[in-house]
Amino acid sequence: MRRLPPLAAVRAFEAAARNESFTAAAAELGLTQAAVSYQVKALEERLGAPLFVRERGRARLTPLGHRLLPTLSQAFDSIEAAFTTQREEDESLLTITTTHTFANTWLAWRLGAFQMAHPELAVRMSTSNDIVDLKAGDADIAIRAGPGHWPGLETHKLFESQFTPMASPECLAAEERKLGRKLQPSDMPTAHIINPGDDWWQQWFCDNGVAPDEKALRRPGIRLDNQANEGHAAMAGQGFALLTPFLWQGDVAAGRLVVPFPESISARGWAYWLVLPPERRMVPKVKRFREWLLAVMEEARQPALSDAAMEI
Amino acid sequence: MRRLPPLAAVRAFEAAARNESFTAAAAELGLTQAAVSYQVKALEERLGAPLFVRERGRARLTPLGHRLLPTLSQAFDSIEAAFTTQREEDESLLTITTTHTFANTWLAWRLGAFQMAHPELAVRMSTSNDIVDLKAGDADIAIRAGPGHWPGLETHKLFESQFTPMASPECLAAEERKLGRKLQPSDMPTAHIINPGDDWWQQWFCDNGVAPDEKALRRPGIRLDNQANEGHAAMAGQGFALLTPFLWQGDVAAGRLVVPFPESISARGWAYWLVLPPERRMVPKVKRFREWLLAVMEEARQPALSDAAMEI
DNA sequence: AAAGGGCATAAGCTGGGCTTATGTAAACGG
DNA sequence: CCGTTTACATAAGCCCAGCTTATGCCCTTT
């Protein structure tokens, strides 16, 4: 339980003592000379002892005032330093939390460009799936997949979370060689699927009028925890994975992945979102990243999601 | 030029953070929970970053809040410590500034009794003649001789600054042996006076209808700077000195000094005064000393200044 | 003398910081 | 499962601490 004098008075005294002038202190504090005089007097009355000797039109410290000054100055210095440090750190470090998938397949590849455009900003990206850390101040900005409503948070839709089977060209070729013809959606239940237990396969079958092979769906397969890993497995020829076209357009363009059914893209109703605390939306670093990401998205979305692009 | 957040908000935050509870902080600060909530929110808005995560009916610190807390706590601790130290020192140390004379002849002999009565108080007596040090807080109380008006200071008259010739019994006897009769005031101009240059001798001569011997007054003699020294010189048999009866009553009673003309006491219009800054009059240590001194004075004055006492 | 700079003081205003009252959500206890 | 308790948020409104403005006085400077 603390017993402190009114801090406004202490502050006025400290400034006055440091400047050895009420007028100068007032200027420093953005007050009038009368205000400083008032506060100093109040503090002296509270202490029951004089802090200044008023003489010859100047105010000089009493021994008591002299003893108090250094401690108080230091205290205010450290308070100031604490907040300054915080502000500087906060201004110069942008922390983004995103899903493993988005980080791997998309953001990591372009964050460099943002960093180039804003060399004064240190950018830290961390991957996790907890949105609470935004409210807790662990990150400035989050990118998350979901239905899109987080209470008390501002969201911007980045792209629909669509999905369609993909595989490496070799894998597709092998499958078609086995069939002796071009692969059809209806062949998928018996094709080599990396993670057949994934619920989304069921939805994709349903969306595309394919009767799922119950037995096939209960095959063991591999759970890879996230789409990024499944995508990489697919590129490595491990089989088919349900992937989001937007995230893999680079790999598709480079021929590392193929999309056998560009017409058969399911949407899970989810999307990827940029999520941020609304009260921080105008903080410079947040504003810059938000604007940059939405611009890049806008630019990327047009060609990428068109059928033309998918059919490369 | 400092840039600090409002200190009331910082204080509220610090208390809330330390207690990990707004309600407890409010109790500590003597405010309502709403006030703390308001201030913390204001600080968070100012910083543009959350300091607490509100969850499950509790408030937990964010990492940022956690980083700020120790610095701020320390700062407030040291502010508190500065004022506490000052208060404790101030409460336990009574500083009295007095004249050399009064210190020597009177106060030093009785300060022990005051100290006995107030063992918790350390008493420091310093002798100097500057009254300014009271305003500068160098001393709590002053005892001074003078006409009695110090602007802005409270004064209590202790005793009139009367004076009359005194000498050692031997000295008086020698003088009377030389004369062959009892000493008369009119004999003084040619008697052995320690400091004949002292203006007060002139006044005493005048008050007692004695024609001063111009030549005698221009005798060299010894300037001893203060009455204490003159009194001691007189006791040592160096000659006659003009002394204040009140201050030497002990020595008169003990036979170390004699007062040849108890009826011929001059008053210089001055007095000895207890002087103190009115704003500190009720500070315990000041009040105690003031009351003690005035009581002792009252007690001492009655018998001491009566003619009976003087004629011992 | 006159001008200027510094602090004190009085009077009066104003909005920051408080209180009171109420809402909400979670934890608790029976 | 429901009433009770506890904790924080929020709204509305009040009040006085802390400010400003205006003035005076004193000392120094020119």
UniProtKB/TrEMBL annotation, chains A, B:
Question: Is DNA-binding there in the keyword field?
Answer: yes
- Pfam families per the record? HTH_1 (PF00126), LysR_substrate (PF03466)
Q: Is Metal-binding set as a keyword in this record?
A: no
Q: Which CDD domains match?
A: PBP2_GcdR_TrpI_HvrB_AmpR_like
UniProt record similarity statement: Belongs to the LysR transcriptional regulatory family.
Q: Which PANTHER family match?
A: GLYCINE CLEAVAGE SYSTEM TRANSCRIPTIONAL ACTIVATOR, HTH-TYPE TRANSCRIPTIONAL REGULATOR
Q: What is this protein called?
A: LysR family transcriptional regulator
Organism of origin is Sphingomonas sediminicola
Its ancestry begins with: Bacteria, Pseudomonadati, Pseudomonadota, Alphaproteobacteria, Sphingomonadales
